[in-house]
Amino acid sequence: MALQLRPNCEWCDRDLPPSSTLARICSYECTFCADCVESKLHNVCPNCGGGFQPRPIRPATEWRPGLSVAKRPPSEARVHLSYSLEDIAALSARLRDIPPENR
Ligand SMILES: [Zn+2]
Ligand SMILES: [Zn+2]
What pTM, to 2 d.p., does this model score? Predict the structure, then answer.
């Protein structure tokens, strides 16, 4: 039900903890940093072709019972690219000029 909050950028492998303001996700929760979304992917998810949005930050404080980073911890499974850089670049080139809502 809740977001997995994956721990890293699939491209550059930088850490993206639950409090990170740099985390970006697609609708399937493919997770990248803002820098890679901008400069490498051009807002094209290499796994699904969708666009990205900032990942919501899960509160560290348990403001409501059972809901906090400690009570609903992030995923620890690091995820890495599933396609070659050439394949990703080709998909991005095909889709980057089409707004996500029209893909
Ligand atoms: Zn990155
Ligand atoms: Zn995706």
Answer: 0.94
